[in-house]
């Protein structure tokens, strides 16, 4: 008997592993699949898997301190010649005059000397010691003993509250595997929540990054599987047609469609400026005969665009149909759950829009899956008073985009307008570069991604 435990931490994990074909394929491959969910049990309306609702471990100061120590040490170890990690270090600095502020400054002093891989592993053990007697940790241990899994699979490697599950799995020698959540997680983010036995990655590039940033990981423990994030784009149940797309969003079928996809306000603060720039260019006929649709980020309430809705009534808006499943969670954005309708809407936007514009988000890859041209807007720099989004051009995962010339980088209004008109007139411009970038970032075909993941997991179980 082969029994798989699947840990789902958030709405994106739900979309990637529940709304793709992964669970269906896992149930064919394993004798039993059980979901350990940090989302409410009630959201799982489209799977026959047994659901166990998990309680998130609430960090006390000691646990937070050792986790932060581990995280900053990891960043310090890998900061040389890596602007993204250096930028992340700067973001982690604190001038606040409270216990965590003072502790953060002390952590930076300690890790200036002690940041080797050996030190990081010691900090990890101290973190584990800080929560080993916690009630949630002990409950997790009892659960794992009762369920007797062959493999525990984490669909995200970073949420701090999964560390207690990994700790208890280590105690009973239960093998663990994780999926690297996003294309930027290794080259610019801090340490994973824990050590795992096996790792699933998007691409050969991501495998190389994993082995670079995690020296103790064996190459044999890493498998390139692609990502289920994009699998719905080849599944017939999410397909629609152009007539339905135009009807749904009230678009003129005779015009080309520009789609601007927003990030959340934490990193994409200039989105209102970019939308305004495009809208004004349409009004002044610098861009002519187009539909303009904006998709907001599912991670936030779109209230910040309220004035633009009123100012430019011709803009069509796609507010992602992600429902907040519960309030009061320590990371409330993670509790937003995507609907099947939203997956269909997103796929139709990707397939039937003629051009995408975004601020260096993973949505570039979504649109490129359908061969669509992409423009990345970065008007802000260190001196012009705007939020400095040009600094992201120096992040390792974005440098690959820039070097590939798969997208147009627009640093001002005129560059943006020119790029829009060039791509509308010649949508095949940079097409080969887009294919090259896609192969670099997602090294496996979208077809049978879920099956590929399930077969890899059963091999490791």
Write the layout of secondary structure elements.
Layout (H helix, E strand, L loop, with lengths): L2 E6 L2 H7 L4 H8 L2 E6 L12 E4 L7 H17 L5 H10 L6 H13 L5 H15 L3 H13 L3 E4 L8 H9 L3 E5 L5 H4 L9 E4 L2 H10 L8 E3 L17 H8 L6 E6 L9 H13 L6 E6 L10 H6 L4 E3 L3 E3 L11 E3 L1 H13 L2 E4 L4 H6 L5 E4 L18 H9 L3 E3 L2 H13 L5 H11 L7 H12 L1
Parallel strand pairs: 1-2, 1-4, 2-3, 4-5, 5-6, 6-7, 8-9, 8-13, 9-10, 13-14, 14-15
Antiparallel strand pairs: 11-12
Describe the structure.
There is one protein chain. By secondary structure, the chain is of the alpha/beta class. Helix content is 43%, strand content 14%. It has 19 helices and 15 strands. The strands form three sheets. The chain has a seven-stranded parallel beta sheet, sandwiched between helices. α15 (363-368) links the parallel β13 and β14. α2 (22-29) runs parallel beside α19 (449-460). The longest helix has 17 residues, at 61-77. The model has no long low-confidence stretch (mean pLDDT 95).
**Arrangement of strands in the largest sheet:** 3-2-1-4-5-6-7
* Secondary-structure-derived class: alpha/beta
In which range does the helix fraction lie? 40-55%
Query: Which residue ranges are poorly predicted, with pLDDT under 50 across at least 5 consecutive positions?
Result: none
Comma- or semicolon-separated keywords:
15 strands; 7-stranded parallel beta sheet; alpha/beta; 461 residues; 6-stranded parallel beta sheet
